[in-house]
Design goal:
231 residues, four-stranded mixed sheet
């Protein structure tokens, strides 16, 4: 049996949306490793793999269970060294740590505003109640109030991507001529929004938009097969 990926979905099991799970999907595809996908809800996670982790992604590879998208990428790199590299050396691993920090602090805060109500609306009733209670505890206010800041914060978000635009003047991917795990870290955040909402984040002329489109085409279009959210 191949690798099993436990990934997050809502009521529609065919629309996996977690940015962190998408990092792992792309990592597995990059390595050319066959894998099965086990769609699970928020409330299913504590029962997975005997409570191995409170969050997904989680993979099972034979007797080995690994959680956390970065730890999974490291595991795949070390255990399948004959497959295409996700890091291309220690420098690539170090770069990915920086990119992960940048993405979490620069991209994810705004994406959380954009996807908050779309995630809520995609869930079934028990998971919707859990999501509202847990997220309103984090934000300290109603989901609708947080989501209402989407348009006002968009300009600042697009400005925050200038370092990436500058880099893309010199190379097609964060990893250089081809993608590495660093690309999948940032890709996961944009795929998160693409799957959940038709809200326009980037102009088509934006170099970051062009990079995202190239990522969608990678690995026989595995990410593009999940259609963008409908208007």
């Amino acid at each position: 049996m191949g690798i099993i990926l436990h990934e997050l979905v809502g009521a529609d099991k065919n629309r996996p949306f977690s940015p962190h799970c998408w990092k792992t999907v792309m990592s597995l595809a990059h390595k050319g490793l066959p894998f099965g996908r086990n769609p699970i809800s928020f409330k299913d996670i504590p029962r997975l793999e005997n409570g191995y982790s409170a969050k997904v992604p989680i993979i099972r590879d034979g007797e080995k269970v690994v959680a956390d998208s970065f730890e999974i990428a490291l595991y795949l790199e070390d255990h399948y060294p004959d497959r295409p590299s996700l890091f291309k050396g220690e420098g690539g691993r170090a770069m990915a740590r920086f990119v992960e920090g940048w993405s979490q602090m620069t991209i994810h805060p705004y994406m959380n505003v954009v996807i908050l109500m779309p995630v809520h609306d995609l869930l079934d009733a028990p998971n919707r109640a859990y999501f509202r209670e847990s997220r309103e505890k984090i934000f300290g206010r109603k989901l609708e109030d947080v989501a209402g800041e989407r348009d006002a914060k968009r300009e600042a978000f697009t400005r925050s991507l200038e370092p990436m635009r500058k880099m893309l003047l010199s190379q097609p991917f964060i990893g250089g001529e081809g993608p590495l795990f660093s690309d999948y870290i940032v890709f996961g955040a944009f795929q998160w929004a693409r799957v959940l909402t038709p809200y326009k984040l980037l102009d088509e002329s934006d170099p970051v938009h062009g990079w995202f489109e190239r990522c969608l085409d990678l690995h026989d279009g595995i990410a593009r097969r999940i259609g963008a959210a409908a208007q």
